[in-house]
Amino acid sequence: MSHCSSSKGKISGLNQHYEEKVRPCIDLVDSLRSLGVEKDLNLPAIAVIGDQSSGKSSVLEALSGVALPRGTGIVTRCPLVLKLKSTKSDSWQGVLSYTKKKENITKKLKDSSEIENAVLNAQIALAGKGEGISHEMITLEIESSDVPDLTLIDLPGIARVATGNQPIDIEKQIKSLIETYIKRQETISLVVVPANIDIATTEALQMAFKVDSSGQRTLGILTKPDLVDKGMEETVVRTVNNQVIPLNKGYMIVKCRGQQDINENLGLVKALEKERQFFNENSHYRSLLEDGKATIPLLAERLTKELVQHIMKTLPQLQKQLEMKLEKTSEDLKALGDGVPLDENEKTNFLIMKIRQFNDALEEVKRAEEDLKNSDTRVFSKIRWEFGKWKLALDSKSVKTEEILRDEVEEYVRTRRGKELPGFVNYKTFENIVRQHVEELEEPALKMLRDVKDIVHTCVDRIVNSHFNAFSHLLRAAKNPIEDFHDEQFQQAEEKIHSQFKMEKIVYSQDCLYSHQLNIVKQKPSTCFGLKASSVNADVREMAYHLTSYLKITCDRLANQIPLIVQYHILDQYVSQLQNAMLSMIGGDNPGMLLREDSGVASKRKELKERLERLKKGGKVLSKFVHSA
């Protein structure tokens, strides 16, 4: 690695192959950021954080070769994206840009002396006068032979207590802003800490550990080594050598211009020479310089390498995220449609199209042919599941019935037997037991009806919202028949189920069916719990045979009949009525009223179109990079 004192040599130590990869890699992410893709995706970045007065601005100033705003209190009041681009030309170019109220503002800078005021003015425009902060970004692009190939995001210094005209919750605001950046897996946190304080107490490092507990994405930068108390130098050396609070990426140490240097007009290039001299002549810190862990030029090399490696590592995931976001945006835009035509005849045709699309979607549900996305389930599959649960309830009833029949029959025979001899079935007793068991099935049948009603209602509600969401008047007009017909068909189904159970109290079966079932039961006595045993009364045995046979026939009948009633009313009839009601709207007096868009829909469509355009351009940039790499 080069230990040159001039910032021109900041990346001269990189081998040719690596140097060829550096600029395209950083340009890729800068291009995506310039396209505004950061509004939609988290881009690989190095975020610079530190407590107030940590020397954060001095580090950035030394890296960029330009004087950034300095002072007491909060100096950085907006996220500042510092794009540094190394060129072979001796000319210097600077551009500052930001967006305010959707207006893009760009200011070309003639030389580095204009930067401080330009940044301050941009901060006032975005965060107001005073010391409040804003989440809006300022971008500062610098092209020069004196800068490394690097992009950094400078974030506000962490304030402990509100002072002067700062908001009372300024610390909370700043921490929230910092956390939005450093919690992203795509972000490397550059934590700037003064070497003359206990590193464990710094708020910035604690915040970094909170979101990156293993220190995988955190690099520590120690500043102000000249202010360290005598006798504490070895602790600083141990810290930089990663022996105090270990970080996966470790630490570096730098010495930037102090206020006295600035007062004495010490230039940035001279400051680099003075920095190297400081580390070279200090017996404690010389080893850090020799190990490549000290000075701004070596930090610039290190950061460039870290950023490029990080970009390459996150690239596949970034590409995948972009494709997913692109697909979702296209779907959202398609759902909103192109908007309502202005011509009255076209409006009518547009209304016909919207209603037909809605009715087609309902028809697909009715026929159990709807298209599914992701892991969703067809509506009729959900309904069939409820029908299956109803059948299980009937089967469970049959098993429980067999278990208690003997006791019930014995009780009836003991208390109500007439003059008949044993073995003759008392028909009245038989009817009473049947009716009692049938009554117990009515509530489960009604519960199944309610559950299916909820399934269909949820589905139709989702469909109507997805089709008419942009048109509140049409949506409201459709909601009335949706609710009315649903309640109407539910009541009709409920009445039929009540009627069915009233009919079931009329004990009836075709003779041949009943005789067949009775024979089956008598041939398989095990199902009647040992009724052939000699200890079982003949009355009990015979009655149990008959009850088991008849209840089996009843349950088989109800297993089909109740689902038929439910399906007919809650799905078929309901959907048909709703489709007819929707078609009747086409002949209405004022299709324009039904098709009036909500005020937010047009702006949402515009926003989605802009996002789609951004993502498409971003996709092309990514694709070109991947294919050329």
Please tell me about this protein's structure.
The chain is α/β, with parallel strands linked by helices and 629 residues long. It has two domains: 316 residues, Rossmann fold; 253 residues, Four Helix Bundle (Hemerythrin (Met), subunit A). The protein contains 19 helices and nine strands. A nine-stranded mixed beta sheet has the order 4-3-5-2-6-1-7-8-9, sandwiched between helices. A hairpin with a 2-residue loop joins strand 3 and strand 4. Helix 1 packs across helix 10 and helix 16 crosses helix 17. It is elongated. The two termini are 25 Å apart. The N terminus is likely disordered.
List keywords for this structure.
629 residues, alpha/beta, Rossmann fold, Four Helix Bundle (Hemerythrin (Met), subunit A), 2 domains, 19 helices, elongated
Straight-line N-to-C gap: 25 Å
Radius of gyration from the alpha-carbon trace, in angstroms: 39 Å
> What is the number of domains?
2
The stretches of 5 or more residues where confidence is low (pLDDT under 50) are 1-17
What percentage of residues falls in helices of 4 or more residues?
Answer: 55-70%
The CATH architecture of the largest domain comes to: 3-Layer(aba) Sandwich
Structural class: alpha/beta
Strand content: 5-15%
The number of E-state strands comes to 9
In spatial order, strands of the major sheet run 4-3-5-2-6-1-7-8-9
The major beta sheet can be summarized as:
9 strands, mixed
CATH class of the largest domain: Alpha Beta
Number of separate helices: 19
Global mean pLDDT: 84
The string of secondary-structure elements, in order, is HEHEEEHEEHEHEHEHHHHHHHHHHHHH
